[in-house]
Amino acid sequence: MKNFPRTDLASEIFGVKKPRFDGICKISEISLDAVGAAKYGKNEGRYVTVETDVLLTGGAAERARLSRALASEVGRLAADFSRVLVVGLGNPAMTADALGAETCERLNVGKGLMCIAPGVSGTTGIESYDIVKGVTEQVRPDLVIAVDSLAAAATVRVGRVFQLCDAGITPGSGVSNHKKRLSKQNLGVPVIGIGVPLVVYASTIIRDAGGDEEGFESLIVTPKDVDVYVTDAAEVIAEAVNTIAARAEASS
Question: Rounded to whole angstroms, how far apart are CA atoms 130 and 126?
Answer without folding.
Answer: 7
